[in-house]
């Protein structure tokens, strides 16, 4: 579009420009999700894959990865389009135009944050010297003789994101639905950014923790959003974002963008096969299932369906039609390997035996009402597990399908990625309160989220010894499959452990200082960059 035409008649052009900017988020959100979620510990894959996303899961980092390039390119296209709107359209013409400019600032600030957290080291690790991302705001006047600066520092990159989001907060005054940027969306993102800057539990930065509280307060006290009641929350993924009282901002997808088997290629397509759509090759990890079952066994069987933790409703095991009962547990299958066992059981009076091959075991009750038992296995170890219907396997792994990124409007894998929702903001404030030493208020916020999912499951105490563990556990349970987990682990200086079945290196624990915590700058971006673009360390 000719720039003079846009400047001469901004009302006629702005809507098209904004649509183009938002459209970049659709392309960007796919690799963004895979980079954030696959690098965590909420999911497993059935086997190694030739797809570029397998590097995210296996931590086999390379710069020649088309999905990395897609995330980088779409992110910077959104930044460029937002910047061009900001540069070409004058503020103060009308509330409507100012709001659209504010939407552009929001998208630009959000992109800088997401790019920096993927390609720059956690904030607590020397942000003044560690490299973030290049700050390139808009199309240069002379595109034939461009020469851009190298990557800004992490601190400078965060400052760019914060300044943009504060400008968005000031300009966004209209009430629109949650598929558009809003004042509260900017405030929610600022609450998260300041939380990322708030240090670790053992070495908190109280200035930034207080700012995380302040921006969380703005969102919560706005009264524009509300936590879904438990029964509705269990169907969160099925609601379109405009009709979801808890969603603050989501990237809108519609079914017409897909055709036929294209539904395979949404992020939910790897997590489940629904109505014949999807690959169904990634499942909830045994670690995540255990976390869901920590306060009581969640039973997915149709004749005894009972969710102790509401978040278990986003898991859908693929039960066999023959109704065979098994004792399922995870065993040590070698010095560095864990695997599932589903041993068929026989009931005889009050005695239950499980048979695996030629070996028969008598189960010992842990909680007979919940059908949790232990077994003294032939390797001399005692394992605990559950009596359940047989779950069909993909290779050797039971298929614990994940539906949280599927079924929007009941449309197989349609999903509008959630960027911010009120549940996260409460958890942001809980963590920030804890880092300020205000454990009383932190406990109230933590239990607000926990007791929605687990009836009467709130904690009675929170203190310096347990706050980090309990708050991080709740974030893992609540924000699973929203691309937050790996970043949450590393920003607090913790170690990622993935001691559960799957083809990944199960006992390769990733520390927050490991070079693999950050992704390489895509080689294509370095090759095409008009200037020096420094690569991340390779060891």
TrEMBL record:
Domain RagB/SusD, which positions? 246-537
Q: Domain of life, per the record?
A: Bacteria
Q: Which UniProt keywords apply?
A: Cell outer membrane, Membrane, Signal
Span of domain SusD-like N-terminal: 12-195
Q: State the compartments where it is located.
A: Cell outer membrane
Record Pfam families = SusD-like_3, SusD_RagB
Family as reported in the entry's similarity comment = Belongs to the SusD family.
Q: What is this protein called?
A: RagB/SusD family nutrient uptake outer membrane protein
């Amino acid at each position: 579009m000719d720039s003079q035409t846009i400047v001469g008649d901004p009302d006629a052009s702005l809507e098209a420009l904004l649509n183009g900017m938002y459209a970049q988020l659709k392309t960007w959100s796919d690799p963004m999700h895979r980079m954030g979620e696959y690098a965590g510990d909420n999911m497993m894959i059935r086997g190694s894959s030739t797809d570029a996303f397998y590097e995210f899961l296996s931590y086999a980092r390379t710069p020649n990865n088309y999905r990395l390039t897609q995330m980088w390119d779409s992110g910077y296209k959104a930044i460029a389009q937002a910047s061009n709107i900001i540069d070409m359209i004058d503020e103060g013409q009308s509330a409507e135009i100012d709001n659209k400019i504010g939407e552009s600032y929001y998208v630009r600030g959000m992109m800088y944050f997401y790019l920096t957290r993927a390609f720059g080291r956690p904030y607590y690790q020397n942000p003044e010297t560690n490299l973030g991302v290049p700050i390139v705001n808009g199309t240069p006047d002379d595109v034939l003789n461009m020469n851009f600066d190298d990557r800004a520092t992490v601190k400078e990159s965060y400052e760019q994101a914060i300044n943009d989001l504060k400008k968005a907060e000031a300009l966004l005054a209209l009430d629109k639905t949650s598929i558009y940027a809003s004042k509260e969306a900017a405030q929610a993102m600022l609450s998260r950014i300041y939380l990322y800057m708030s240090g670790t539990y053992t070495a908190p930065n109280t200035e930034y923790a207080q700012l995380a509280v302040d921006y969380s307060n703005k969102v919560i006290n706005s009264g524009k959003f509300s936590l879904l009641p438990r029964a509705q929350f269990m169907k969160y993924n099925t609601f379109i974002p405009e009709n979801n009282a808890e969603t603050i901002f989501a990237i809108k997808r519609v079914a017409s963008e897909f055709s036929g088997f294209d539904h395979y290629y949404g992020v939910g397509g790897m997590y489940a096969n629904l109505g014949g759509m999807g690959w169904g090759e990634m499942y909830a990890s045994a670690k995540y299932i255990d976390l869901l079952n920590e306060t009581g066994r969640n039973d997915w069987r149709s004749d005894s369906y009972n969710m102790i933790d509401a978040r278990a409703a986003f898991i859908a095991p693929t039960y066999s039609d023959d109704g065979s009962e098994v004792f399922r547990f995870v065993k040590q299958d070698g010095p560095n390997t864990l695997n599932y066992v589903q041993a068929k059981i026989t009931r005889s009076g009050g005695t239950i035996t499980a048979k695996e091959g030629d070996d028969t075991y008598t189960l010992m009750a842990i909680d007979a009402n919940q059908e949790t038992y232990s077994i003294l296995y032939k390797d001399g170890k005692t394992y605990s597990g559950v009596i359940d219907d047989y779950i069909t396997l993909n290779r050797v792994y039971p298929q614990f399908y994940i539906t949280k990124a599927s079924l929007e409007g009941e449309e197989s894998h349609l999903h509008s990625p959630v960027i911010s929702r009120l549940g996260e903001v409460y958890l942001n404030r809980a963590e920030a309160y804890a880092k300020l030493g205000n454990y009383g208020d932190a406990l109230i916020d933590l239990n607000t989220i926990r007791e929605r999912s687990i009836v009467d499951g709130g904690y009675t105490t929170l203190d310096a010894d347990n706050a980090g563990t309990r708050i991080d556990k709740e974030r893992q349970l609540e924000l699973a499959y929203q691309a937050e987990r790996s970043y949450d682990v590393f920003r607090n200086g913790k170690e990622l452990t993935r001691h559960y079945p799957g083809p990944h290196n199960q006992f390769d624990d990733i520390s927050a200082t490991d070079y693999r915590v950050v992704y390489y700058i895509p080689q294509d971006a370095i090759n095409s960059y008009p200037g020096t673009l420094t690569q991340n360390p390779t060891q």
